[in-house]
């Protein structure tokens, strides 16, 4: 006889599954909208491992919106660490090098600069960015959808107790091995597991040497070395050996260094490199984000950033549905907008991996030809463009019912790779330009829709209930740069992407109302 299940408790409006950077960012975003959340994480604490390392410029823009950018930057490495260096061993000279564009220094396309920092340094900051309940050591083990809610079965690993919690929606950010995705029977596309890697976290006195030649990643023939924190600490990423339990990890680190050193191994973690995109990002009232929706190989530092952009796209839509100013169909736009971006990002990560292997292959050929013929440098196949990818992170363009492409204009296609051309066309992120009060155009966006126009008086209306809306004056010089006539306007979504564009003043009293209704599926 099956034991009687406990009655479902009223949990939250949104149940977030997974306490990594993506789940924690979603929690902070939803709290700013006034949405009640409960976050559950099966591990008993935040990750003690460095894991994701790169915060790209778009993710830092999102953290700026959450008023976290300065705090994160203060704990991160200096910009000169925004570089990858290729070496035969860690102590050998560079034979190739490339900058992480947008991380190694400011770029004119953004008001912020990305950063090199460790995930275990980032997560506590994100955890402190919201006050809603978090339960560590609690795992989702069952899920059932009802007419207007989802009921989750939660197992507390500490007490052994099981509870049922009811929420309006579930946001699954529980990683590449997502329990939620498996429970819903959602398949994946892509090669899947493509390798096994071990992270060795260690202490060694490498500071005086690394300070002269800073980098976020030192890629050697033995593995990748990463400085963990500005005050010290290192990690080595290597292919997992056949007998990991019997491996001499301190000896491996010393051999990879290429010189004698005193090494203190602190932690060892084995993990799988996955490469896939989920077949669906939505199943009824459950939505997948981050690695649960797409697993991206680490080359280029794209995975975590992709997940943060997922929830930046999703959370305002959830808030709108929960508060009644958006229809449930708006949530369909999440998959339509973000799944193509996931496929493009996966493709870019695969290309990044190929480029890295190409550099190493060329070096091995040179070394095999004899020491007398080995040149000092290898010209990377991408020059200084590796890790740039501004087109991929700033040039994302959405195509869905949440974007109106009227006004008789054609929109530019989504950009990929290194190329980014700012454009004020529907679907694109609003370009960064400085406003007269010292703010960026990106600072005008938040928990509301924004109407950008140089003729605010023409667009004032008695109101556009029930949508949150602000009218933001746009300096005339920006309208020229964006090819926007003096009485034109841009309607910008809370995630900073352009929802609609008008080349002239409002054609009628209901123009703005009708546009907001269409964009929000209300």
What does this protein structure show overall?
By secondary structure, this protein is an alpha/beta fold. The protein is 26% helix and 25% strand. It has helices at residues 21-32, 57-65, 69-74, 119-127, 179-183, 207-212, 249-257, 303-323, 332-368, 390-394, 456-459, 476-481, 511-519, and strands at 8-17, 37-41, 54-55, 83-86, 96-99, 115-116, 133-136, 138-145, 150-156, 162-172, 188-203, 217-219, 224-229, 232-239, 264-278, 282-283, 286-288, 294-295, 449-453, 469-473, 489-492, 498-502. The strands form 4 sheets. Strands 1, 2, 7, 8, 9, 10, 16 and 17 form an 8-stranded mixed beta sheet that branches. It has an 8-stranded mixed beta sheet with strand order 5-4-12-13-14-11-15-18. Helix 1 packs parallel to helix 4 (119-127) and helix 1 (21-32) runs parallel beside helix 8.
Beginning-to-end CA distance, first to last residue: 47 Å
Mean pLDDT over all positions: 89
Major sheet: size, sense and barrel closure? Answer: 8 strands, mixed
Which secondary-structure class do the elements indicate? alpha/beta
What is the count of helical runs? Answer: 13
- Could you list the spans in which at least 5 consecutive residues all have pLDDT below 50? none
Q: Classify the helix fraction into a percent range.
A: 25-40%
Number of E-state strands: 22
Overall, the morphology is globular
